[in-house]
Design brief:
With 79 residues, the protein is mainly α. It contains four helices and no strands. The chain has helices spanning 2-12, 14-17, 41-50, 64-77. Helix 1 (2-12) crosses helix 4. The radius of gyration is 11 Å and the shape is globular.
Length: 79
Amino acid sequence: DPANGRQGYERYCVSCHGADGRGVVANAPDFSRGEGLMAPDVTIAQTLRSGKGGMPSFLGILSNTEMLDVVAYLRTLQR
């Protein structure tokens, strides 16, 4: 659910990835250009689960459903 995903994104992701998904820290993907969004939903959710590079793991912070909701929201940022 992208609406639920937006809440999670705004709480946990916006400080590094920006309100519009363009990324505000070094090496953050530009979601508005589709960077990092070519993978299947479960693969992107696994990145949220385990972390990657400077991004922390959200295991124990977000449920699996909430992670998939965040992925659904990320896809709405692509232009």
